[in-house]
Inverse folding.
């Protein structure tokens, strides 16, 4: 049984490496591309439900272009789905990533100018030069204070997650403009150079089973939900109860989730 979220095949086309394993009209190697929009929904089907989101500069492999849609697989986690074709461009040779919760791109190195677009933490950019307090990119000028070298990983997923405090909850969201529980965990871990899949059921295999009191950076799972432990008493998570990224007491969260009929903690993992 294949997982359609991780299997680059839609019946018409499939990745070449799947030949002999499943049926398709044709098998292709795919072409490299990059996300050219600030934020793009990755859908289960054209005009379908949102599974996840991809950020500016993230790499994908395109297996099919049809009717304004592209059937793609994301490089960061292998997630498969459909993007609007207009959201794609050539691969981005990123030199920097957005390390602040969010930032703006300006037409000139001047914060008083009207911004061109907003970018989320995790967006990837090719910096071509600097001008005072700004970095120059093909899209415009971005505050240098909001960027970090693409190859430089952070060392504390919890501190990354805390930058999203107050971000509204959004099912399938992966950005500072809306995020869900697994999106928050993925953003935090990827910023620290830790590979992380996109959905909670996949993330439950991360690390090893932990015993005893939770430690900072541990993951606590419920059915369909995940949170990052801040310390022995608190956690940070994107949750539909508060409709935002919040800090909550571990005991309070366990009791509240159980009272909502959503069951007990199903796993405690340590990275």
């Amino acid at each position: 049984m294949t997982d359609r979220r991780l299997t680059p095949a839609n019946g018409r086309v499939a990745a070449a490496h799947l030949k002999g394993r499943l049926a398709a009209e044709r098998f292709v190697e795919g072409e490299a591309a990059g996300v050219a929009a600030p934020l793009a929904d990755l859908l289960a089907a054209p005009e379908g439900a949102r599974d996840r989101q991809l950020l500016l500069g993230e790499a994908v492999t395109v297996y099919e272009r049809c009717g304004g849609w592209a059937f793609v697989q994301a490089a960061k986690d292998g997630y498969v789905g459909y993007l609007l074709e207009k959201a794609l461009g050539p691969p981005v040779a990123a030199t920097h990533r957005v390390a602040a919760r969010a930032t703006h791109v300006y037409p000139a190195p001047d914060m008083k100018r009207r911004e061109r677009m907003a970018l989320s933490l995790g967006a990837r950019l090719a910096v071509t030069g600097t001008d005072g307090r700004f970095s120059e990119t093909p899209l415009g000028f971005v505050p240098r204070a909001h960027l970090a070298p693409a190859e430089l990983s952070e060392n504390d997923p919890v501190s990354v997650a805390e930058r999203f405090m107050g971000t509204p909850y959004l099912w399938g969201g992966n950005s500072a403009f809306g995020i869900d529980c697994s999106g928050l965990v993925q953003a935090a871990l990827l910023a620290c150079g830790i590979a992380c899949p996109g959905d909670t059921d996949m993330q439950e295999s991360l690390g090893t089973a932990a015993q005893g009191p939770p430690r900072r950076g541990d993951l606590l799972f419920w059915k369909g939900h995940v949170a990052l432990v801040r310390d022995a008493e608190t956690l940070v998570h994107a949750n539909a109860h508060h409709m935002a990224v919040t800090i909550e007491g571990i005991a309070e969260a366990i009791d509240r989730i159980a009272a909502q009929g959503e069951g007990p903690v199903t796993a405690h993992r340590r990275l």
Remarks:
- Residues 181-191 form the longest helix (11 residues).
- The CA atoms of residues 53 and 73 lie 12 Å apart.
